[in-house]
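Contributing new records

If you add data, match the layout below exactly. Sequence lines come first and carry their own label; structure lines follow with theirs. Keep one chain per record. Anything else will be rejected by the validation script.
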Amino acid sequence: MGVTMETGPRLDPAVAPLVDEAARLLAGRRLVILTGAGVSTDSGIPDYRGEGAPVRTPMTIDRFLADPVARQRYWAGSHLGWRHFSAAAPNAGHRAIADLELAGVADGVVTQNVDGLHLRAGSRRVVDIHGSMDRVRCLRCGQIFSRTGVADRLTRDNPWLASPDGVRLNPDGDVDIDSYDAMTVPDCTNCGGVLKPEVVFFGEFVPKEKFAEAAALVRRAEGMVIAGSSLAVNSGIRLLDQAVKRRMPIVIVNRGATKGDPRANLKIDAGTSEVLTALRRRLV
């Protein structure tokens, strides 16, 4: 797969000098790229904290484990969301990141997203520190299932659960749903245990091996680009801290303020798709 030099979305002329500065800071360095939900908004997946994002109460790990009714509610909404979530396509920002890796400019991407779009865009080294919605794990025996197979079971066992028009997709692939008491929740076909998408729920820790893999990418890097993340989640801040300690140049691309802005060498307040596309043209 070669590097694709697509035209991409139009860059605001006022932002172009900042992209030039970012290219000067990062040129000749091996990069690590950290992404958040803002990278996927142009693919139709909403942001958690961006402007206009609805206030919501996501499922917590304690509630999911303790309450069978909560699991009914979660799987009903998650199944409806999966149909929309899995249909999303990578955007120009995802493709720019993949091209930076394929050209040898970036060593890999660490993502807080669970949508799998980096892999579908062509990135080869992706550390999904919050997991991925396309995998389902049994919490008793550890068996891993394809989400597609679990979705087929859900459709068969819940024919009443039709996707309504105007469904509001959430960043984690869930949707809000009012009626779910008839929901048949999938269980493990191996041991009958509780199934859970292999994503980090609120109140749950990032797996140690995942964070170690992400930290290793930061240690090997000579520069960091943070794209589409407000850095409100602890895992992102910890990786930024490591980059700061290594005194590598750090460029943040995000609409709105982030918790890392004071420590970045450069902040670009603009859309990730257009900035990453323009940055790729300058570095590749």
